[in-house]
Fold:
Amino acid sequence: MDQYLNRVLIIDLSKHSYHVEEREAYFKEYLGGTGAGLQLLKEFLDPKVDPYHPDNVIVFSVGALTGKFPMVSKIVSLFKSPHNHFLGESHVGGRSAIALWQAGYGAIVIKGASQIPVYVTVEGKKVSFKEARALWDMGDTRTIGRIMRERAGRSGLRTIMRIGKGGERLITYATVTTETYRHFGRLGLGSVFGSKKLKGLVISGKRSTFPLDRKEYKHLYDELYNLSISSATKKYHDLGTAGNILPLNSIKALPTRNFKKATFEKAEVLSGENLAANYLGRRIACTHCPVACIHLATLREKYPDKPYFYKTTFVSYDYEPLYSLGTLLEIERVEDFLKILETVEKFGIDAMTMGVVLAWATEAFAEGIIGKDETKGLEPSFGNGNVYVEMIEKMLKSKNEFYELMGRGVEALAERYGGRDFAISYFRNEMSGYHTGPAAHLSHITGGRHSHLDSAGYSIDQKLLMEGTGIGPEEMAKTLFEEEAIRQVLSSLVICFFARSVYTPERISRCLKLFGWDLKEKDILEIGRKILVEKNILKREMGFDMENFYIPKRVLEVPTSLGLIDPSYMKKTVEHFKTLAFKN
Structure:
């Protein structure tokens, strides 16, 4: 096996101390990433702990193929979420995974809480705790990253993780930014950082390892590389996931105006085609990835009273922000969308949750559920980008009840003011932008992260639409479970989901064999099922009850391309899924 993968760096922020332990069994049995990270979380975390208690732990984990093959560029974070009090799991690309692996570790466990703001540097075997009081409440995430980079100097391949004001203010859906344009986005890792007074992590290293058969390794690497730049990933390079806007709009699956409808008349404006043709500044790639799916738009803002002088900012965009901060708010100008997204990025806040919160607030204001007293004089209205920017800024600065609740998510707002029928969220995690049919919503209900990426129900819906068929609740449950199970393997190795058609179980088996694993295809699939069951058992210990789900009335009112969502079908499917998700 990889000589460094079994090593776990354990950091205690309360004592500003660290040590290294071996966990070979975790990585050998679960491949790393989500699988091994879940075992570490179970070992170090009391599932009943308050997410903001120092005993909440953060796990970062990489996988058996990290640093060895193309598009194996993700790192997994696991923690107890302050946003929904269940399992928090978030993945990020960039350089983080390779940097951790080259530093000589398969995982990091962070426990305790510092008395003063700090950031931690990991340079191979050397770990240092740096005072960060001067960085706390100073500048945006980009400024913080630049300062940390200048202080760190250069030592091997490096990643810089950091939080902005969102994490410092304990916004429950605050993010951790890495490499400026990548984020641990969902469920509030940045808020856990903030509760621990952890401003960031700088990780670097120069270590490497070698395959058992170098000739076969080169042959397999070339095969996977060529597949990675084939038609399987072309759309991610050309338009990125922003290319989903027009296809989803055409099948009436694009949530708009806080989900009052599923088409947007101005979809062409926010389309990947328009952004690529008129706003795209550059593409960048994660380490070890030839696809370059990260698309940066140029936002030009004129300086006041200075003709021909502009501030130019690169803003990373993809489908989810275009939905949540664009169509859901009925934004009709690209510049307005980019300004809202740039504000979210600056403070380190999850774009998807923020958009759903702003959309709810806009409708609640129109319905008289909230007024100017709550918004401090602002009048949110669909399409008004400037007001949305002001509301985000007030959320980070204001102390009134409304803005504090905005920082806890849409369900917290609805519980206080009403409007639950149009608060689009499942288990306190705001919904993604796919109103394709029942499977998309079932992914949010049954998925381990309550994410569209768990079991990709939106893809199942679109396949059924193309085939003109339907499936019963039991078959739907099995389809969702098996899809999420194979994705547990991908997120344990940790392979980018964009490469899911490249890394088949057969190819995964060949890759692993070169680094010491002897696993057949059936073994690999069984590992995924085992991880998924253990993940659901841990969530149950945290208080999660899968059958205690609520479908917002608004979701039931707006037809999908497969018809209206049937609550009885959803209930039966969840019952079947539960028998799979908790079996021994």
